[in-house]
Design a protein that fits this description.
Elements (H helix, E strand, L loop, with lengths): L1 H19 L3 H17 L4 H18 L5 H14 L9 H19 L4 H4 L2 H11 L6 H15 L6 H11 L12 H5 L2 H4 L5 H16 L5 H4 L2 H10 L2
Helix pairs in contact: 1-2, 1-3, 1-4, 3-4, 4-7, 5-8, 7-8, 7-9, 9-12
Length: 235
């Protein structure tokens, strides 16, 4: 009884406010408290089931509200809570839940607000890096390709385009992600000529990091002629 009261009246209340609070400082404080529970789920199995039970009535509904800040906050909490699975579920239940979670991510890529779309690349890349062995190769490739093909060429927001490049750098921290490098690298020659300086800078940072991490030489990823042309256009 006491445990149920703590979960429903305290922890679930924190979850709600981690998504709906308008006060930025208070929002960060609440999210920091919840982060402790997310970290504990790696050590204590029953935490997984509790978080799923408490998040589900709030999280999915929050992706459909009109306020883009709420949707962004929900996305950030989902990033921490993923994968939302209970150790009591059957294989069929786990597969069904994962499919639902991946579908939510696909929808977020197409979110009407750049405030939300700007966060999506970090969600996807963080998931792939942290759970590369857990997420199927087909799903990783699909989500990354969808993110790159849609958000790298987002016409309405240079911030969204830059975030796609910045988030891609996260993949280079996990050598297991190397099979995905073609998805990123083959788009760079075109993105390097983006009209936004912040996007072009993010591309250069990604190229240099790729060479540093021995994922490939920058002049092999982007032809030297392309680089010379770009340098001639910079001021």
């Amino acid at each position: 009884m006491f445990r149920t009261k703590i979960e429903n009246d305290c922890i679930q209340d924190l979850i709600y406010h981690s998504i709906h609070l308008a006060d930025k400082k208070l929002l960060v404080s609440v999210q920091t408290i919840l982060a402790y529970f997310h970290h504990q789920k790696l050590k204590l199995k029953h935490i997984d089931g509790m978080l799923v039970r408490l998040y589900e009535p709030i999280l999915w509904r929050s992706f459909t509200v009109a306020n883009p800040e709420v949707r962004k906050n929900a996305l950030q909490q989902f990033s921490l809570a993923f994968p939302m699975l209970s150790d009591e579920w059957s294989t069929a239940q786990i597969e069904e839940s994962l499919e639902q979670q991946y579908n939510h991510i696909k929808n977020l890529i197409q979110d009407p607000s750049p405030v939300v779309r700007q966060e999506v690349p970090f969600l996807i890349c963080r998931m792939i890096v942290a759970y590369y062995d857990f997420i199927s190769p087909q799903t990783s490739k699909y989500l990354l390709s969808s993110m790159i093909d849609t958000l790298c060429y987002d016409k309405s927001s240079p911030e969204v385009r830059a975030s796609a490049m910045k988030a891609s750098k996260m993949l280079l921290s996990n050598v297991q992600c190397k099979p995905l490098k073609k998805i990123i690298f083959q788009r760079l020659p075109k993105v390097m000529h983006d009209t936004s300086e912040s996007v072009r800078s993010a591309v250069i940072e990604l190229l240099l990091l790729a060479q540093e991490k021995e994922w490939g030489n920058w002049w092999e990823i982007v032809e030297l002629e392309q680089v010379v042309v770009r340098l001639g256009m910079e001021r």
